[in-house]
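Case study 2.
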Amino acid sequence: MEELEQVKNQIKEFVKVCNHQKSLELLDKLATGKMLRSKLILKIAGVSEESVKLCAIVEMIHAASLLHDDVIDEADTRRGKPSVNALYDNKTSIMFGDILYSRAFTELSQMDKRIAYTISNAVTLLSIGEMMDVDLTENFNTSYDLYLDMIYKKTASLIEASAKAAAILAGLDENKYALYG
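Prediction:
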């Protein structure tokens, strides 16, 4: 899918702005996933300069959350490849995650205020969900509702926000698309 290559190139351009060679090297070490959120955004909003930027922002946020998650989970692999924390160390993984978050939010701040709020709020939920996941691993959890709340926040919230933000970008019913996401 040519559009996903555009998204990957946009991410690289966003990271190049940092003028930090190690960040570019680390970006090349990231294992690329299915880019589900980008596919969703592009399907809803179509392909444009703004939608590709939104995709890049969301993918950078998702990658940052996975970099942090790999440290928390002490994971040596991500999508069948060595994780950044395994290749380097936890500090590098966390700091590169922070760089991706920071660049994503810098670019997000230049977008429509409603889109910026939607994505930013999802990242807060994602972070709370990750903390809940850590807490849930300390004791055996018997609460199905607590588990559902955790996975909604940790995973579904960013997918929901991606669909909603794409709808805002395209001038569509944001609530319907948020629910779909």
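The first helix runs from residue 2 to 16.
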